[in-house]
Amino acid sequence: MRLFEFEAKNILKEYGIPIPRGKLAGSVEEATQAANKLGGAVVLKSQILASSRGKLGGIVFAGSPTQAEKAAQDLIGSTINGNRVDRLLVEERLDITRELYASVAIDRQVKTYLVLASTSGGVDIEEVAQTSPEKILKHWVDPLTGFSREDAIEMLNKFDISKDETTRLAHIMVTLYKVATDYDAELVEINPLVRTPSGEFVAADARVTLDDNALFRHPEFKDKSLIRLDDAPLEAEARRQGLAYVDLSGDIGIIGNGAGLVMATLDLVHLYGGRPANFLDIGGGARAEIIKRGVMLVLSKPEVKAVLINILGGITRCDLVAQGVIAALKESNLKKPVAVRMMGTNEEEGKRILNKAGINTYSNLEEAVESIGTLR
Amino acid sequence: MNGIINQKPRVIVQGITGNEGRFHTASMLHYGTEIVAGVTPGKGGERVEGVSVYNTVAEAVQNHGADTSILFVPPARAKDAVIEAIEAGIKTLVIITELIPQKDVIKFLAKASKSGVIVIGPNTPGLINPSHKIKIGIMPSHIFKPGSVGMVSRSGTLTYEIASHISASGLGQSTCLGVGGDPIIGVGFTDLLDFFRDDEATEGVVLIGEIGGNAEELAAEYIKKTDYPKPVVAYIAGRLAPPGKSMGHAGAIIMGGGGTAKSKIDAFGAAGVPVAEKPSDVTRLLRIGMGKYQ
The complex's ipTM? Predict the structure, then answer.
C-alpha cells in the first residue's frame, strides 16, 4: 500500500527527520491561507499516487500568496493521469545547495533490505543506476544484526562529503531503516534529500510503501488500504469483499481457484480466440458464499457475455462451488451462459447439482474453454 | 530425496489443532507420511488423528526424533513458530501459511540459512513423492502417480492440473514440490534443478512458472550454464496479465516492464527449454525430451 506524500512525511517527522514547513489543504481557501501563513514563495504539491506527478504538472511553484491561490484553483479538482486532485500539500520553498537520494527497500531476490544512497538526487534513481552507477552506494543489510550507524558511515565514506555531512546523513539512513522495519515498509525513500544553506538535510519529497501482509500490525492504515486509486470500480468492490479480482477488457468472465490456474485459464481462453473480461481467484477452500459473491460480481459486469468457471478440487469442494454458482444465478437473475469445469473433491455431486439446473459441466479444461466460445 | 528432505522424514505438524491442520494431518497420514507429533501451544496432551500434541517443538523433537515440520500457523504467529522449530533442531520446514509479513519472512529465512535449515515456502502446497508415499503438503493425493518426472512450481492448483496430465499419460512423478507463490521464498527453482539432476528417480523436469520476479530467467540461465543433463519443459502462466496488478499471488506482478511472461519464455527459449503453450502440451513435450514418444 503506497502512502501519500503527506502521510510519508508525517512518519519521517515523527522520527526526527526534518521536513519542509507546510500544511495539507483540501480547498482553495485552505491552500491560500497556508500560503499566507508560510509567507513568500511556496510550492503546491498534488497529493496523488501517480509517479512523476511533477512532470505531469501536479507540482506548482508560486512566488506569492496570490499566485498560490491561482495555482490552487487550477490544481484542486483537476485530474492528473486519471487521478483526481483533492488535496494539496502547501510547503515553504527551500533554498537548496545540494540534492541527494536515500532509501531503504526490500530486495526480494537477495531476501533482505537494501539501503541506497546517491549524490544524484531529484531524478529517477533507476535512471541514475543506468547512466552513472558510480554515484550510487548500496548496502545489503544482514537481517540478523540490522543496520547500524557504523554500517552507514562505512557506506557513506565512499562519498566525497564532509565529516559533518557524513554524520548527519548516517543518522538519516539509520532512521530510514528503523522506519522501514517499524512500519513494515517495502520502501522508504527520500528523493530529493536536500541540503539547505545552514547545512541541514531536509526531506523535500518522500515515498513510503507498506507491506499489505503486515497491515494487521498497523491498524491506522488498514481501512485506508481498502481504497486504491488505481482500482477500477469492480476491483474496488472485489477488494471490499475480499476477492482477488483484476479487470480486463474482454467479454468472457473467468473464475477459478488458485492464482496460477486462473492465469493459465485466461491464457488458454485467449489461445482459443476468446477475450477474458477479468481475473478472479476465489482461493483455496472457498465456501459457497464466497463463490456466490464472486460469480455475482463477474455476472454484474455489463461487458460479460458468458462465464467460465474452472475448479480443481483439493481443499475446495466441488459440491460447495456448485451450490454457490446456483445461488448466484438465482439471486442476480441474469441469463448469461455459464460453463463449469470441475475436477477433484466431490466432483460427481457438484456436476449433478449443476446439470440439474441446466448448466453444462466439463472434466477437461480445454473442452470447457472451447464450449464457452460457442455459448457466448 | 537427499538435500531437500530425509529419505524417511519424521514429520511434525505445527498448528495441528486448527481446522486445516487436522484435515491435512489426516490426509498425510492416510497417504503414508510418518507424522510423529503435532504442536500447538496450550494444547499439549491432546491427540489429533491419534497423533500426540505438544506445547513446544522441542518436546516433540525430544520425544519423537522429528526432523521435518509442516506449518499451518496463522501469519501473525509464523515467525515465532519457524524460529522455534529452527532452534529445536528441525532440518526441513514446509510453510503452508500465506500472507506472512515480508519483514518476518526475511528474518526467519536469514536464521534458517545460518542454521543450515531448508525452507520450502511460504505459501506453498508442499511436496509429494508418490513412490516413497511421502506427502508433506496439502495437494490432493490421488492426482499424483509414481513415475519419473520431477515437478517444481510457483503455483498450487495449476500444478495439479499439469500433474493430472502427466499421471494420465503414465509418466507419473518422482517428486513434485511447490516453491511458493510469495515474492520472498526459501528454496527456489535452481535449488530444485540441482536436486533433480542428482535424483536417480527423476528422468525429466517440469518447471511451472508465472509472471513476476526473475526466478524463471535465473533458472533458464542455470540450465544453459550448467549444460543441464536432463530434459526440462516449462510452462508460464500469465501471458495476458496487465502490468502493475497483482494476479492473486503477491509474487505475480509485472513491475516496471520486468517479470513478463514474454521475458521468461524468451529466456527459456535461449536456454533450449521448450515452453508449453497450454497445460496439456507439457506431457507431449516431455515425452519428446525423454525419448518416450510413441
Answer: 0.91
